[in-house]
Amino acid sequence: MSITAGSFNEWLAKSGLPDGTSELSRLLGMKRTTLHNQRMRGNVAVPTIIAAARAVRINPLEALASFEPYAALVDEVRPVTNAELISQVSHVDALVHLLSRIRADFARSLGVVPLADIPSDGSVRNWIDAIDPGELRSHVATEGNIALSNLSAQLTENRLAPELAILASRFAGVSSTSGLVVSGLVTPSEAGWPIYGRENALSELGDLELLDLVMLRLAALHRQTKKRVEAEEAAADYLETLG
Amino acid sequence: MMEILFSAVVVIGAGLTLTRLPRLTHSRNQAIFLSGTAACLAFALMIPAVYEPLDGLFLRTNFMDIFAKLALLLAVNILVTEIARTLRNTRVQRLAAGLSGKTILVLTFALELVLFAFTDTPQPSPGLGLYIGDPLVLAYNTVIVVYIAYLGALLIGPLLRDARTPPQSYRQASSALLAFGFVLAIVRAVIMLATFAFPGLYEPGQIISGFSALFVIAGLGSAWIALRKYGTPRIKQSTLRIE
Predict the structure, then answer these.
(1) Which residue(s) pair with A44 in the sheet?
(2) Residues of chain B whose C-beta is under 8 A from some C-beta in A?
(3) ipTM of the predicted structure?
(4) CATH code of the region A5-70
(5) Domain of B192: which CATH number?
(6) What is the pLDDT of residues B2-57, one digit of tens each?
(7) Minimal Cβ distance to B223: which of A228, A229, A243
(8) What range does the domain containing B9 cover?
């Protein structure tokens, strides 16, 4: 779902933003050439709209909804679910919470550690897993005209194109803005997520649910670390042998 | 032109091979040192000033060329096996140094001996270049070039994959240069086959051989730099660290 340069220019005028690429790129903190290329191609990227909205203190989601492809965005906003909030708890956060729950002295030593920012490693994949009612990936791939392997590659890189994130939200029946949060395009507060929502959701978990969450996160960490260690060993072996 | 190029290959190759000497005492780089020495010997024997006095030691004229071919076969086989080992590619290892790989190597050399036995070359000439118009001599030269191209072809895919794997840019450059060297080896084989129809292609083909060797040397040189740049750190940081 691309945003045309024409509609972007109209929106700039309405929002009181400068039309010149140089001035605008300075204001948005992005490279002039990047902005120039987007406008020349007639395909303005969503992060550009979001940066522009933030520059004039407009809610990025409202700004995005003023463009035709994203018009339904604001109408489909729903309260974020507990499953979504828990999906954005990292392995460190889950472990800290588990240790604090096990021993009071650990809780005192660890103090009040703020949860990791969103997105953290695996945010997008965890969110997809949390909202998946079944066949979510294949639905997104089919409706989004993208190969399943390319969708998997995006999840591995912890990103999801905005249009695919919205498709996933619609199919799962969750807020249309959640995917934009977990992929780091908008902040939780911009999407209306409650303050301390994740902390509360974590506290409300039963002991077994918390242990399940920790095991799930540790399993993902194990897979990721194994890949990294093997890659490091392979690189070291390459250099030791050929270097 | 050919003499200058081959002299450059010998000098640069010998320089790079000598860099492996210090680590030999730690039982490292033995295979690459052996491969480099054999390759330097093979290319030195392509220079008339080196080749002719040594060939005089044998009763059969140009018998020295058999040693040059053997040195080249071993140099390339050892190098490809080592690269395949570092890339953890068991298929290429098997096809280069496993039972099938060894069988192909022995058969190639046996074929070289048979073809050489039937050649009639009264004047000493490196690579039997003076007699390249004789189809038997051309076939004798083609066998080894095709064998090198076969080994090179096995490695191009794995090397290109490694060249696209970040983050060590010198290691990536090393793989890319090695891959390009092996691509030239394939080009050289194609030209050698075309020489049956167009004998004038022999010299350009030899020049490509020289450049192929230079690219492989550059690849190993890049690996040598990479080891110094990214070598084992004194304090190894945990892969789990996220700060």
Answers:
(1) A3
(2) 28-29, 31-32, 82-83, 85-88, 162, 165, 168, 171, 174, 220, 223-228, 230-232, 239-240, 242
(3) 0.75
(4) 1.10.260
(5) 1.20.1070
(6) 888 899 988 999 988 888 888 777 777 888 999 999 999 999 999 999 999 999 99
(7) A243
(8) 2-228
